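Subject: design request, 340 residues
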């Protein structure tokens, strides 16, 4: 096993049933790591269950529910290991899943974030929505995955089993080098939920580090445990996408892309309306107003950070994934070209 020390950190908030279902695989197949559960001030019996059934698991107790970003940011202050796996509580890991991941960090000092292949626990032959075989982004900032474009999930036939650099690695199972995680400013708690990992990986790339996927390791994600298909999820996705575009792109490029997104997001809202989902249209409108309403504070944060042109980063698709998916009917990652 590589020399870097390794931790697996599971974030929990009232997830007793998830811990009962998924903690056994984590404990059984992660013997080379120290296992932590970061508890976001649960009111159920989560911590008692862990203490009784898995005494080897170290519990870090936050005093309030800080969400995904805040919970991990606070919890990692109590974790000393070099590498930390941020693992969702609804992920089933597999035998020897950690070894290929840790070895990549040992052989590449510039690697700062890494994910395994993410498969769907409910349909194991398919890639899972949150990450698949690595995350990418198009020229206007729309994220997609190798194995998943929008809601289209491919069957895993080994077609994306190569290790490669990506734009972002999924927060469902995100291995980070702790020193670089902190150097990049950790996760942005203002995002609350959705796209925190994309923002983090973006900032890591701006700093000159690499983000990658190692499909030699695979895990199974249940997914959809919270906010599935809800207007709140639509709101957070659209709002957070605008925020990270603005913060991480040079000013001129950011304004041009946000202007284009204003038009395309309007088209998405019209599509929701035609599908009989007016609450999702309202969520998009609310997302834009929320973004513009905090412009001054975002601008101040942008001035304190660093930016690079999108085309200079790895894992960027030069075309429009919206146009290619909906108009050209390119439903598979393998049909796309010109990805840096």
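Subject: RE: design request

Done. Sequence follows.
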């Amino acid at each position: 096993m590589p020399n870097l020390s390794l931790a697996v950190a599971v974030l929990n908030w009232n997830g007793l049933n998830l811990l009962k279902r998924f903690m056994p695989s984590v404990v059984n197949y992660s013997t080379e790591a120290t296992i932590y559960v970061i508890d976001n001030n649960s009111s159920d019996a989560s911590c008692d269950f862990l203490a009784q059934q898995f005494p080897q698991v170290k519990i870090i107790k936050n005093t309030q529910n800080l969400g995904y970003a805040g919970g991990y940011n606070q919890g990692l202050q109590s974790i000393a290991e070099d590498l930390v796996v941020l693992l969702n509580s609804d992920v089933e890991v597999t035998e020897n899943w950690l070894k290929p991941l840790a070895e990549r960090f040992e052989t590449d000092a510039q690697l700062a974030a890494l994910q395994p292949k993410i498969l769907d626990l409910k349909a194991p032959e398919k890639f899972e929505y949150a990450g698949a075989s690595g995350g990418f982004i198009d020229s206007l900032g729309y994220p997609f995955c190798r194995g998943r474009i929008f809601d289209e999930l491919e069957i895993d036939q080994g077609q994306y089993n190569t290790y490669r650099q990506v734009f972002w690695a999924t927060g469902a199972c995100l291995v980070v080098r702790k020193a670089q995680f902190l150097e990049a400013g950790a996760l942005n708690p203002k995002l609350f939920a959705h796209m925190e990992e994309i923002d983090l990986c973006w900032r890591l790339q701006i700093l000159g580090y690499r983000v990658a996927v190692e499909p030699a390791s695979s895990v199974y994600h249940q997914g959809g445990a919270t906010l599935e298909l809800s207007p709140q999820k639509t709101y957070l996705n659209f709002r957070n996408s605008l925020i990270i575009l603005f913060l991480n792109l040079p000013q001129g490029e950011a304004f041009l892309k946000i202007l284009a997104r204003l038009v395309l997001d309007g088209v998405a809202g019209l599509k929701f309306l035609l599908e009989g989902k007016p609450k999702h249209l309202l969520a998009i409108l609310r997302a834009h107003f929320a973004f513009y309403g905090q412009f001054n504070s975002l601008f101040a944060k942008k001035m304190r950070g660093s930016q690079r042109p999108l085309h200079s980063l790895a894992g960027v698709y030069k075309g429009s994934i919206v146009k290619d998916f909906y108009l050209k009917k390119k439903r598979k990652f393998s049909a796309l070209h010109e990805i840096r």
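The mean pLDDT is 95.
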